[in-house]
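pasting for ref
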Amino acid sequence: MVTKPDSNKARLKRHKRVRGKISGTADRPRLCVYRSTNNIYAQLIDDVEGKTLVAASSNEKTFKDYGGNKDAAREVGKVLAERAKKKKIKTVVFDRGGYVYTGRVAALAEGAREGGLEF
């Protein structure tokens, strides 16, 4: 019997390993990315307080035209950066969530950079 490796389990293992090395503060929060099959989600997290400061996702009403593609990911990054500017957040620590830095994850990061976030 052929068994397929559980890719989400491997992703969670990578994510846990990375999370042991990076952490977000109020001055420099962690930009956490979650990628589902249909949407992409991003949030800025203060790990000291354990609170989400800013969040954006492609399943909000303003993103109905895009769906879960790279264009939507780029727009989510831009919207997240705009919301972060309103809270006076300029620099972040990027947490790719165990995903490979290509495709939608990279597009979200580029959109956040275009919006003015530094990482």
